[in-house]
Amino acid sequence: MPIRYRLLMTTLMLSPLLLSPLIAWAADSRLPPPEGDAVLVVAGDIGLTNHGDAAYLDARMLATLPRERLTTHTSVTHGPQAFEGVLARDLLEAVKADGETVTALALNDYRVEIPAVDFYDYDVLLADTMNGERLSRRGKGPLWIVYPRDAHAELQDIRYDYRWVWQLYRLEVE
Ligand SMILES: Nc1nc2c(c(=O)[nH]1)N[C@H]1C(S)=C(S)[C@@H](COP(=O)(O)O)O[C@H]1N2
Ligand SMILES: [Mo]
Question: How far apart are the C-alpha atoms of 146 and 144, rounded to whole Å?
Fold first, then answer.
């Protein structure tokens, strides 16, 4: 076939590889199965699953999402802390979550309902490191929901403090 068609075909065949991982996740209704232990499980009203009706996300899958930084005071530490992780809304979009409430569950059996709109109004992080150190399960890990408290006065309120779930391991979308 003419060379320009062959070039076109090659470009079309390669183009999925050039798409961002986020878009690649969304290309199918099923996620690849996790290779390692799940860091976070997302269940409920989601469009992408890989384990029953839930999405089991391992560290490798979380690493395909853009990493963000956020430095803020918290209600449980002294001085500003530098967090890193993924945006809660990026994670929810990656599994095609569609709901108004996200229930966050922690390893210590703490649970709280969070209005999903929080994650669109604010750059809320699912942090996995603080000051460059990975959050351990014995500490606030594997993930800590961190609000940009210093940047928005209205977040400096007990109503938001209780949504800062540490030892987060599961989100349920309704
Ligand atoms: N995993 C987990 N996250 C949690 C809590 C908890 O008990 N467990 N307490 C919440 C509450 S009620 C508040 S006010 C803030 C700060 O909690 P503290 O004041 O009890 O330290 O963290 C929130 N996140
Ligand atoms: Mo609290």
Answer: 6
